[in-house]
Amino acid sequence: MKKLLFTPGPLSTSKTVKEAMLEDMGSRDHAFVNAVKEIRHELLNLAHVSQAAGYECVIIQGSGTFGVESVISSVIGKKDTLLVIANGAYGERIVKMAGIHQLNHYVLRFDEDQVVNPGSVREFLQVHPDITHIACIHSETTTGLFNPITEIGAVCKKYNKVFIVDAMSSFGGVHMNMKEMNIDFLVSSSNKCIEGVPGFAFALCKKPELEKAKGQARSLSLDLYEQWKGLETNGQFRFTPPTLSIMAFRQAITELEEEGGIEAREKRYQANKKILDEGMADMGFKQYLTPEIQGHIITSFLYPADPNFNFDRFYQKLNDRGFIIYPGKLSKADAFRIGNIGQIFPDDVRNLIVAIREVLEEEKVNVELA
Ligand SMILES: *Cc1c(COP(=O)(O)O)cnc(C)c1O
To answer: Rounded to the nearest whole angstrom, what is the distance from the C-alpha of residue 64 to the centroid of ligand 1?
Structure first.
């Protein structure tokens, strides 16, 4: 049975994206080397920057976290200090990286149901002038909120700080102009809104900042600068490349363009979310976040109060009907998540809503029960 993934990644992908992986591919094959070149070029385009404008794209094997860790462990020098802004599990993951790599760092935390307050960031910087770099999550997938990256970027610019953004779950599904947002490093991966298959992460980097990373990596395989040099000098990865995942991604970018670019994809995801929101509200489900800070990537729904509700059975019964949803990751509330991204369309969301209604009926769950 075909299963649809309503998750934050890996996501449902098109048949043609999967078909792009059918031929074995050597790492020196022209088709592969060209695909890498085109992808690096296209990803900068999607962020409204270019090599000519002083930006570079580095591809890193592994999942999204490998890309974030490559940047975090390569660009903050011994004399630098990182400020990690955290309001969810992904921000906390960067805090963990800073600890493991023994970086000089501070953490500025906000509640999970609150977006980052740029004014508080400014005040923190005034008290801690030793800070050189700031890392923040754009779409905090823990809850689905969007942090105000443009406003935080403006603070970074004013105080002359290097700005690192984990835009993993949003890039490709949200319009982002790296230059206008003052982002120096933007990280995302192959299996989120570009709708490729898992296999690699990518970092879009402001070249002068990337160049400063020379010789300061804390690991061999995640050395961002050396990875870039490898790709630039002979177009090759330093270690076995994710060949087929690259070929799938090349096709995924073509399909993104055919859909009408990021603008059209954003509209589709927003349409998915609207149908989801209305359908779930109709059944009585409550969202974890207030609508003003909720993004259109993934939504957290609170568990119904009815003791008949059992998430594992709910999940399994939806799974049996071909719909994969996602458990929650909140520290303070019981919730599950439903993603709006990937190859899912308004009719798929309508079908999911029908399936959820059926399961609730079968389980005799009264969502309205307070
Ligand atoms: C998916 C995601 C990541 C990366 O997770 P991986 O499991 O390593 O791919 C990082 N940050 C955010 C915000 C994400 O949504």
So the answer is: 5
- Residues spanned by CATH 3.90.1150.10 within the chain? 261-363
Q: Is 168 in the pocket of ligand 1 (CB under 6 A)?
A: yes
For the Cβ of 132 lying below 6 angstroms from any atom of ligand 1, the answer is: no
Per-residue model confidence as pLDDT tens for the chain (370 residues) = 889 999 998 999 999 999 999 999 999 999 999 999 999 999 999 999 999 999 999 999 999 999 999 999 999 999 999 999 999 999 999 999 999 999 999 999 999 999 999 999 999 999 999 999 999 999 999 999 999 999 999 999 999 999 999 999 999 999 999 999 999 999 999 999 999 999 999 999 999 999 999 999 999 999 999 999 999 998 899 999 999 999 999 999 999 999 999 999 999 999 999 999 999 999 999 999 999 999 999 999 999 999 999 999 999 999 999 999 999 988 888 999 999 999 999 999 999 999 999 999 999 999 988 7
Minimal-distance CA residue to ligand 1 atom 4: 64
Positions of CATH 3.40.640.10 in the chain: 15-258
CATH code for residues 15-258: 3.40.640.10
Helix (H), strand (E) counts: the chain:
12, 14
Answer whether 189 contacts ligand 1 (Cβ < 6 A): yes
92 lines ligand 1 (CB under 6 A): no
Q: What superfamily does domain 261-363 belong to in CATH?
A: Aspartate Aminotransferase, domain 1 (3.90.1150.10)
158-163 CB contacts, 8 Å cutoff, 24+ apart: 158/122, 159/122, 159/125, 161/83, 161/125, 161/131, 161/132, 161/133, 161/134, 162/75, 162/132, 162/133, 162/134, 162/209, 163/133, 163/134, 163/136
Pocket test for ligand 1, best of 7, 60, 63, 191 (most atoms within 8 A of CB): 63
